[in-house]
Structure formats: structure tokens, C-alpha cells
Specification:
Strand content: 15-25%
Radius of gyration: 18 Å
Number of domains: 2
CATH architecture of the largest domain: 3-Layer(aba) Sandwich
Distance between the termini: 41 Å
Number of strands: 10
CATH topology of the largest domain: Rossmann fold
CATH class of the largest domain: Alpha Beta
Structural class: alpha/beta
Order of helices and strands: HHEEHHEEEHEHHEHEEHHEH
CATH superfamily of the largest domain: Alpha/Beta hydrolase fold, catalytic domain
Largest sheet: 8 strands, mixed
Helix content: 25-40%
Strand order of the largest sheet: 3-4-6-5-7-8-9-10
Amino acid sequence: MKDQDIDQQIYDLYDEYCHSTMDRRTFLQKASAITIAGVSGLAMAQALLPRYAEAQTISFTDERIKANYVDYPSPGGTSGEMRGYLVAPTSEGPHPAVLVIHENRGLNPYIEDVARRFAAEGFLALAPDGLAPVGGYPGNDDDGKILQKSLDQAKLKTDFLNSAMYLKNHELSSGKLGATGFCWGGGTTSYLAVNMGADLSAGAPFYGASPKSDEVASISAPLYIHAAEDDERINAMWPDFEAALKANNKQFERFVYEDTKHGFHNNSTPRYNETAAQLAWDRTLALFKENLT
């Protein structure tokens, strides 16, 4: 089922499911009560659930990369320890580094694939698993979402700050660091920009929550801010963020992608918009190559 075959009511319900405590069973039950033009809402809802195996673009056996899981300290975080998916180019380093930040459900296969995509382009990529201190991504987004929501959010953010510094100082890193993230990870990208100052060389948040206006003065990194056209919750935050960026003379560009919904970069669901995702990817690579290499 394609994007245009899914009614807006089901998209709205799916957005609520993704960003609340609603579980999959309730989501599907509510969708099953809806029928549009003879098409079952349940069928539309099931089509929106991620299909990670079909979405892989770079194999973990790709000859351009070497991937493994690494453990590292995280003082002040959820448990004091963290784990992440580290992917290095097989070419000789050091390499510019990119932190890849997951959505609100832990390190799922889509985010691991994004890390491999960066490594294939010559970047040392780390995708931390915010759920690692409590057992790691549980193998499905439903349980991952509930588990991530249960964590102390300040400690979770500290885990990502520590992850960023671990990557920046890694022996294979050139010391130049960029960050990108999606949904919750987009907001966390902005959090890192606020809290890392000059230690972050560039940031590319995708449809993430904006920082508070009084925090924007601390940002040093140039930002490429990727937004979906149909994303009322996130886009409502933009005017205040834009005003603060301009008032503090920050370097930024915001791109709104036509005919897209929240999550348009994630190629495991029908929300994926190939044209917009590719353009956002190309822009992100250009930002990182300009500021990290």
C-alpha cells in the first residue's frame, strides 16, 4: 500500500501511536473501527508499521565498511555505561565523525542502516543505543518506545552527550564531529548543538523538537534543519526557534520538503518520500563534508 492510499485519519492515529503511550494493539483496534471508501483502516494501519528487512540499503558485509558494537563509559547517564553501533570506513583514517541519533524507540535496524550509509561515504559513524543501559533495543519498536519513555530523560540526554565526546575523541576520528537525528533524535541533535558549543562542527536535525529560545545563544555549529510540510506539532515550534537563531546571528538553513509527513526519511514505512529523503541526505552530506573535512 502506497502513501497516497492511506487516509489522513490513519496517519494522525499513527502519529499519536508513535508519540504517546498507545500500544500497537490499541492502535490497530482504533484503526479497525475506521473504513474509508470501502477500504479497511486496519489494512492502512498495518501498512504503516515498519518493515526493516526490506528497507536495508547498505549490508553489514559491505566491503567499504567495518561495523561492530562498542561499549564505553557514560558518567552521569542512565547507568554509567553505554553501547553503540560503530561503523568505520575500511579506508585509512582518521575520518570525520558523525553521531547518528535514533527516534524515541532505541537503536532499531533503520538507524543502524543510516550509520552504515555514512561510513560508506567516508565518515566514522556511531549510532548509540539509548536503551543499552536497560538491556538494549528489545527487537521491536513497541516495547522500545515504552522502555525509552520510562527513562530519566536528563540522564538519557547525558548518555548521548557522552557518546558524542567518545566519538569525537575516538582513535579513528579526525576530531571533527557532526550530528544528525530523527524525531526524538532530531531534538537531541539540537540539544547537543546547545550543550557542546564549538565541540560540535555541524548539526542536521530531522523533524525534531526545537530547543528553548534562551538556549540558542550557546549554539556554535551551523545547522541544516529538515522539516516535513505536514508536521503540525514540530512546525509549530519553528517561529520561536527561527527568531532566536536570527537574534543570535547563528548560521542555519531550514528546508521544508513538499508533500511530506513526519518521518519522511525512514524508508521502512509508507511515510517515506524517496525524493525528499534523497535531497535531505545530499544536503546533509554536503554540510558535513564542508564543515568536517
